Amino acid sequence: INQGWQQEYPDEWLSFGNPWELQRPEVIYHVHFGGGIEHVDDKGRDRAIWHPAETVQAIAYDTPIVGWRGQHVNALRLWSARSPDPLKLDAFNKGDYVSASAEQSRAEAICKFLYPNDESPAGRELRLRQEYFFVSASLQDLVNRHLTSDGQLRSLAMKVAVQLNDTHPSLAVTELMRILVDLHNFRWDEAWKITVATLSYTNHTLLPEALETWPVELFERLLPRHLEIIYRINVQHLALAEARAPGDIDFRASVSLIDERSGRRVRMGQLAFVGSHRINGVSAMHSDLMRETVFHDLNHLYPGRITNKTNGITFRRWLMLANPKLTDLLRETCGEAVLDEPTQLSLIEARASDVEFQKKFRSVKLHNKTALARLIGERLGIKVDPTALFDVQIKRIHEYKRQLLNIIETVALYQAMKDDPNGNWVPRVKIFAGKAAASYRYAKLIIKLVNDVAEVVNNDPSIGGKLKVVFLPDYNVSLAEVIIPAADLSEQISTAGMEASGTGNMKLSLNGALTIGTLDGANIEIRDHVGAENIAIFGMEAGDVMIRRKQGLDASDVIRNSPKLQRAINAIGTGEFSPGDPGRFESIAHALRYLDHYMVSADFDSYYEAQRSVDARWQVAPAWTRASILNVARMAWFSSDRTIREYAEEIWNVPVNPTTPLLPDLRDVAG
Ligand SMILES: *Cc1c(COP(=O)(O)O)cnc(C)c1O
After folding, report:
1. Rounded distance, CA 32 to CA 140, Å?
2. Over 70: is that where the pLDDT of 470 sits?
3. Which of 308, 345, 370, 470 is the most exposed place for a label (fewest CB within 10 A)?
């Protein structure tokens, strides 16, 4: 953060080498791009020979990943790209060093930058090259290893599961078909059965801007054979659509793998859906919305494929590693088995009102808050009181996550405090952290607003230090591990219907923070588990949001009826927090008054009220502590072990042996 603005720097994660990984120089695959296709007429097998224009080598690097309690080690296999002929001797012989090294740079660019998120055609092309590079290397490797162990590919789906993590590896559908049909001589129909039985797809968002599409023209130039395969899949797929809804052109257009509306584009979400035997959302509400909205027609065509797998979090990191003091208290209270079996957490329920237990529980939280207060002092020079309410919103900065709602409430609270400096205010520290995508201008302006508000509020002696605003730079997992154990209040305030699941919500609740949140994503299931009395729910529901958007209402009605909101927006819009540049936040004030697409203005009063009930609750320490303990006690279901067990049993067809002892005898392991 430079003068309150986000600034990006490269993350040179390999500049000092990586001692955990092993290069596997013997594991090399060739990944091709461009060129032309030769069709082989062999009894309708649809086989083709690809004559590529360019070839890049993929070299494997393995990182051993030790399982919990060290009974198994898996390899996380990553790929590095290089030019197959780095010295290009013929070019060098002619003295053409420039074009020889240009080819090498082009190959190495594939794994030099993380998917650039910009609109320039060159950046877009690099991203598609990256997606294909990683898909192709991984699938070639997987098929190779299966052939080595099984001697045939017919059994692939019985031994292998490929989980497409979002649409970025959707090309796997076409690449596996290419490998089976073109390289291993399978008949199209059999190859298709194997492909669909092997692949499954997890959808992570319904935001239209995040559903990938690629221009057909770019696809054709880079991956000509894959485009043919997509067309061939689309023929059978659209025939099925025609059989299901004869003559319904709109239905066919909506399920087609090609979007014909604004220039022809390949739809990667549709491709992943059609090529998978199971498609899952990441919370109950998100999976329902998939069936009702984006994938409504595909669900009709392939009923029963959509299933839900609510996300989870690893308790090894988010409890045992991040919060050793709480872990010790839980071991002491629930027994050692709690480390292996999170359902044992419920044993603390009986102690939730116990004065002695509450005292120990509170002292753990105070210890963690003191550590965070020290970090804030060191990094920002801001002094915060560890006994104040630590109100935490840490997540990527995005309009739908509504950091803006939180900072406007902060402004309104600050104004109320100034009006009544001797009021019985609950001391609060508003803690923000998160990054905006480099090209997301508006999100970066929100970061600047938080920092500008912090500058004014933190230096106003008239409120007696009762309110502090902190924006911690460079949010990442390591910083999250310090903030989460210190949180009292967890802000999960996305516009209802827009957060697929959230996992930060789970981490914070597991560490004893109470949630203030909307009925969105996994917040709904968190409420169901912790109990409605132990969470503060506010705001519009997903259905309300859809209706209000359809009505096309602007926010002038709600602003007229909310003096607090009006005053806060005015202060921001007229430069009270940016006196040197009074117009800086005019665009934000304008968006809040008129479009209000994310319902920040529409939800403000409800949020402000919910925050004041949180204040009232905080003032009764035993009741607050009891609710905090019950949050921890009731989070077992959100362990990622539960999530992965569901994927194994219901998607990958991997039987999970229920008799496997959860707490292995360590002597057996040593033996
Ligand atoms: C858990 C986590 C997230 C996800 O947070 P949400 O609140 O669910 O958006 C993002 N970044 C980091 C570093 C995390 O640890």
Report:
1. 12
2. yes
3. 370
Q: What is the dihedral of CA 494, 553, 576, 492, to 10 degrees?
A: -10
User: Which ligand 1 atom is the nearest neighbour of the CA of 476?
Assistant: 13
Pocket test for ligand 1, best of 316, 394, 501 (most atoms within 8 A of CB): 394
CATH superfamily name and code, 22-308: Glycogen Phosphorylase B; (3.40.50.2000)
Please report where in the chains the tokens 């898909």 appear, as a residue: 135
The string of pLDDT tens digits covering residues 39-58 is 987 777 789 999 999 999 99
Let me know: does 573 contact 590? Beta carbons within 8 Å.
Answer: yes
Compute the C-alpha angle 502/508/514, nearest 5°.
105
Which residues, other chains included, contact 635 with Cβ-Cβ below 8 Å and sequence gap of 6+?
342, 345, 506, 509, 510, 529, 530
pTM tops 0.85: yes
Q: Is 335 left (phi over 0), alpha (psi -120 to 50) or beta?
A: left
SS3 readout for 8-74: CCCCCCCCCCCCCCEEEEEEEEEEEECCEEEECCCCCCCCEEEECCEEEEEEEEEEEEECHHHCCEE
Amino acid making up residue 215: P
Rounded Cα distance between 166 and 161, Å, is 15
- How many other CB atoms are there within 10 angstroms of residue 68's CB atom? 15
Residue 511's Cβ-side half-sphere holds a number of Cα atoms within 13 Å equal to 38
pLDDT on residue 121 = 67
Q: Where are the domains of the chain?
A: 22-308, 368-635
Locus of tokens 């031994």: 159
CATH code: domain 368-635 is 3.40.50.2000
Task: State the Cα–Cα distance between residues 554 and 592, nearest whole angstrom.
Answer: 9
Answer yes or no: is the C-beta of 527 below 6 A from any ligand 1 atom: no
Q: Which of 503, 515, 625, 643 is catalytic?
A: 503
Site of tokens 């598609």? 128
DSSP 187-244: -HHHHHHHHHHHEEEE-----GGGS-EEEHHHHHHH-HHHHHHHHHHHHHHHHHHHHH
Q: State the CB neighbour count (10 A cutoff) for residue 483.
A: 25
Q: What is the pLDDT of residue 143?
A: 98
**pLDDT, averaged across the chain:** 94
Name the residue with tokens 């963690």. Answer: 368
